[in-house]
Amino acid sequence: MPEIARLILDGKTYELPVLTGTEGEKAVDIRRLREESGYITLDDGYGNTGSCQSAITFIDGDQGILRYRGYDIQELAEHSTFIETAWLLIYGELPTVEQAEGFSALLTEQAMLHTDTLHHFEGFPEHAPPMAILSAMLNVMACQHPELLKIENEAQLLMGSAKIISKVRTIAAFAYRKSKGLPFNDPHPDYKYCGNFLHMMFSIPYHHYEVHPDIERALNLFMILHADHEQNCSTSTVRIVGSARTNLFTSVSAGVCALWGPLHGGANVEVVQMLDEIVKTGKNPREFIERAKDKSSGFKLSGFGHRVYKNFDPRARILKASVEKVLKIVGIRDKSLEVAMQMEDLALKDPYFIERKLYPNVDFYSGILLRAIGIPADMFTVMFAIGRTPGWISNWKELLDQGGRINRPRQIYTGKTLRPYVGREDR
Ligand code: SDX
After folding, report:
1. Ligand 1 center from residue 331 Cα (angstroms)
2. Residues of 61-97 as b/e, b for ≥16 C-beta within 10 angstroms?
3. Which residue has a Cα nearest atom 8 of ligand 1?
């Protein structure tokens, strides 16, 4: 017997189908509600709204579980590479040896930027935010590839995905080099994805950056942990834009724009700035906790809280362990890690945070890890964007495969009712 929910409105009963996901999640299907009753549902911030059915990522926020295509994040973090994970997200299965080698070779082939696009970097001022450069350059790619504006077969999907996944890393590195007034480093065909990024960032003429395998591994880990997170703000943005059948480059560019915000991917920068302020000024971390609890302050403790996780964000735990390891390898004692752990400890004992189930999220420790690798703070959110790119692509692909309708929420109008036009002299 299919499960049915009953809703009574104005004395009339409406039967609404109940859907159950493969992990037992339940949803009341209201797709015909307005047509049948004239009512819509209202859900500010979409906290209770399923915008799609998806087979890509599963999160159980109460248990702190995250899985990509059924694989636990802890296992992927231990055994996979970013590129293998990217394939998994887009195509649904781990790649065979042949597929992995082919994809890796394609990414290497696609790493360079078309020389016609390089002059765009001259137009950006040195202080241009790298997120703005990345979103702009993704649209430049749309200009460059008219043959991929409509993706109608597997070969086009593979090429479009490879171009974006490979080139976001080159664009990010070039944005950094531009900000430092340094010459661009062409990608090196002998390096793998993360090693090549580090080379493009840090090699200088006559001084080749030595890619330390543990650092390369830590960067892979960072990317894997950021690769997808179901219907977060930026991925939902990609799906909304893509639902208008907007091309892949532009849809991903929209995702970059959404990610930039401090409540989303931009939080990793804010966390490190806060920790640095504490280290520099000797302020007590408790001061920040108290400010976050005071609603009139408008201040939120960056890197804490999550719409879905009401238990530990599993990514934060993995990142914390990795930070400690990388700091040992590079031989740096970063005081901000000590402050972060102190802050976590204080927050987790505080009734305000306990009652609201606010735990460290992915952004709390990621900045400290990136800094240990040598990545400057203004690149942190771009690093998140590089990691999230396969997730955006896989969601865009799934949306198109599902052939769904254009995304178009309703609203409850609360403005003025009809009134006559007032001439300028009477206003
Ligand atoms: C990411 O969605 C995703 O999956 C995102 C992400 C991904 O991988 O894509 O995981 C990446 O964006 C991580 C989050 C990064 N942002 C921050 O760290 C910014 C600080 N955190 C928040 O502002 C906040 O927690 C959000 C934006 C992350 C979530 O906002 P919600 O879902 O609207 O928060 P909520 O409704 O669960 O809040 C419940 C209560 C509220 O208080 P009351 O009104 O009940 O009294 O907790 C309070 C909130 O004001 N609260 C905080 C807080 N976060 C929530 N209070 C102080 N500091 C905080 N950080």
Report:
1. 34
2. eeebbbbbbebebeebbeebbbbbbbbbbbbeebbee
3. 229
